[in-house]
Design brief:
Elements: E1 2-6, H1 21-32, E2 39-41, E3 44-51, E4 54-61, H2 68-79, E5 86-92, E6 100-104, H3 112-121, E7 126-131, H4 140-144, H5 150-171, H6 175-180
Parallel strand pairs: 1-4, 1-5, 5-7
Antiparallel strand pairs: 2-3, 3-4, 6-7
Helix pairs in contact: 2-3
């Protein structure tokens, strides 16, 4: 069993912002794979289903980005999911829009949601970093809390479709193949 955590902030005012790309990814995965409806549990919204033969719990912490770790720990403990089977999906300003990286462990690189999970759960979980780019005109906080432009949304949806299609590669222990399939 795997826990896939999408990071974001709850509430209408944050919907479709760049910072909520993690929420959007797990919502797209749930819809595309016919997961059960999200329900409130563990101070989060959760959904269960499967991708191929792998059972998956999707989690969207409702504690705001900076306090995501508590919800992740509670869900992982309840379902007895080891930290090595946790995949956290989040925005990354250091990657241009459309670029994706995956790694296990490492530092938070200034991302407060990742820092919260590192501090509470540990840092040996998988991170799927979805590039959102940077703005020359806006400071970081204003940029990440801004909406994607229509052309940017198309690129995001394309990346989501490719990631979801190839997600079984991650579960088979081939995370690097998951990423390499995006750029073919």
């Amino acid at each position: 069993m795997f826990l896939i955590v999408g990071l974001g902030n709850p509430g209408k005012s944050y919907e479709n912002t760049r910072h909520n790309i993690g929420f959007r990814f797990v919502e797209a995965l749930a819809k595309g794979q016919e997961f059960e409806a999200f329900k409130n549990k563990f101070n989060a919204q959760i959904s269960a289903g499967s991708v191929g033969d792998e059972k998956i719990i999707l989690l969207k912490p409702q504690t705001f980005m900076n306090n995501s770790g508590a919800a992740v720990l509670e869900a992982a403990n309840f379902y007895k999911i080891p930290i090595s089977n946790i995949l956290v999906v989040h925005d990354d300003m250091d990657l241009e829009l459309g670029r994706v990286k995956i790694k296990c462990g490492g530092g938070a690189a200034g991302h407060n949601g990742i820092r919260s999970i590192d501090n509470i759960v540990g840092n040996a979980f998988w991170r799927l970093r979805l590039g959102i780019g940077r703005s020359d005109k806006l400071d970081g906080a204003d940029f990440v809390l801004g909406q994607f432009l229509p052309a940017e949304n198309e690129k995001v949806e394309d990346i989501f479709a490719k990631l979801i299609k190839n997600l079984p590669l991650f579960f088979k222990g081939q995370p690097e193949m998951l990423i390499s399939k995006l750029y073919l």
